[in-house]
Design a protein that fits this description.
single chain; 391 residues; Helicase, Ruva Protein, domain 3; 3 domains; five-stranded parallel β-sheet; flat; binds adenosine-5'-triphosphate; binds magnesium ion
Length: 391
């Protein structure tokens, strides 16, 4: 057997392929093969695994595969989005609460750790966990013990913990937003999924798989099969920078399947579905003398775009202000009565924010994580604002 076809872990290509097939992990790049080999190794154990990677790279796919390939497969897999659950609620969701522990705690409730007994908890967006909850997570990881909110009785549960984040936890630790001890505890096994633009070789396989699996939409059961992606079409897909990674690719393929009439997907078709105004950084278009990492350059472009949107909104706001200052055509009844304090200014500020959020969400096709990142606010704040504005 050659060294090339067998991994250093001694996993044969055949075993790896059938594992990938069973768990729906598509990709044959060295990067994905390494990820798969690690999963195959750690899955049967109870070790805590931290999965990191940009949004849409497949962190949840990997976490599910680890659970499914473990001896806990017949028990629960409970995903918890630590970034989206409001701070006050997260702890009671995780560990449960006693009746009367806080206003609204009308009865005793079990938390996810108790509910997942024998199974797996997937702490998604662990990087967004409030510090106070981090202490308690560390305790449960170290001793298996936790307490319901409002109780001092320690409980235990047999739970395997998997975690994921798209944040750079090193940075979070340095900024004191993430506890170093918890970070060290979590990263005993760290599976890093590289962004799609760094493993473009996986794109044709993913395209083929999505054409097959998403084909149903209005094109008949066997649709997808009769669609031809031309060489220049595939080249365009492979050139794109995919800031939203595999999720974005999947969405693009889905849109093409739903909206395209013809069966030929060439470069012209593809370009229509790739966000044109999107900062398209690829290895060829990025001027080398820039001396910046693609991610950095991409972020800067994104901010410039946002800045432009903001300036447009500011112009609008000024315009509204000017309109307000014009003398009214007819004076309001009641002499000397002051104008009611004008809240229009506030409204436009709120409106501006709402507009910006709506626009950013649209840009990222509803992906809150990317939108929050672009807006430089936490996902939780974004979540609250979406609710506030009813977006
Ligand atoms: N290697 C892969 N093979 C097949 N499908 C994949 C792969 N990676 C990602 N996907 C698909 O891409 C989409 C996004 O994957 P997933 O939700 O796991 O990403 P994520 O890293 O958890 O993203 P986020 O950080 O935004 O939560 C899903 O539809 C998933 O099925
Ligand atoms: Mg996810």
């Amino acid at each position: 057997m050659s060294e090339v076809s067998t991994s250093t872990l001694g996993i044969s290509p055949g075993d790896r392929q059938s594992f990938q097939h069973r768990h729906g992990i598509i990709g044959k790049s060295t990067e994905i093969r390494e990820v798969v080999d690690t999963i195959m190794q750690v899955a049967p154990t109870d070790i805590t695994v931290l999965v990191t990677g940009e949004s849409g790279t497949g962190k949840e796919v990997i976490a599910k595969a680890i659970h499914q390939a473990s001896k806990r497969v017949s028990r629960k897999f409970i995903p918890v989005n630590c970034g989206a659950i409001p701070e006050g609620i997260l702890e009671s969701e995780l560990f449960g609460h006693e009746k009367g522990a806080f206003t609204g705690a009308v009865e005793t409730r079990k938390g996810y750790f108790e509910l997942a007994d024998g199974g797996t908890i997937f702490l998604d967006e662990i990087g967004d966990t409030p510090i106070s909850t981090q202490v308690k997570l560390l305790r449960v990881l170290e001793s298996g013990e936790f307490m319901r909110v409002g109780s001092s009785e320690p409980r235990t549960a047999d739970v395997r913990v998997l975690a994921a984040t798209n944040k750079n936890l090193d940075e979070e630790v340095r900024a004191r937003r993430f506890r170093q001890d918890l970070f060290f505890r979590l990263r005993s096994v760290n599976i890093r999924i590289p962004p799609l633009r760094n493993r473009r070789g996986d794109i044709p396989l993913l395209v083929e798989a999505f054409l097959r699996s998403l084909g149903g939409n209005g094109r008949g059961a066997a649709a997808g099969q009769d669609i031809l992606v031309t060489d220049d079409g595939m080249a365009a897909l492979m050139r794109h920078s995919w800031p939203g990674n595999v999720r974005e690719l999947r969405n693009v393929i889905e849109s093409i399947l739903v909206l395209e009439r013809g069966n030929v997907v060439d470069e012209r078709v593809v370009t229509r579905y790739l966000h044109v105004e999107e900062p398209r950084i690829d290895d060829r278009s990025l001027p080398m003398h820039l001396g910046k990492a693609p991610e950095q350059a991409e972020r800067e472009l994104l901010f410039r775009l946002l800045w432009e949107i903001k300036s447009d909104l500011n112009d609008l706001r000024r315009l509204v202000g000017e309109l307000q200052q014009r003398p009214p055509l007819s004076l309001p009844a009641g002499d000397g009565a002051e104008h009611p304090s004008i809240s229009l200014d506030d409204m436009t500020l709120r409106g501006m924010e709402e507009e910006l959020i709506a626009h950013t969400l649209e840009r990222f096709r509803g992906n809150r994580r990317l939108a929050a990142e672009a807006l430089n606010i936490s996902e939780r704040t974004l979540y609250r604002k979406i609710k506030d504005y009813g977006l």
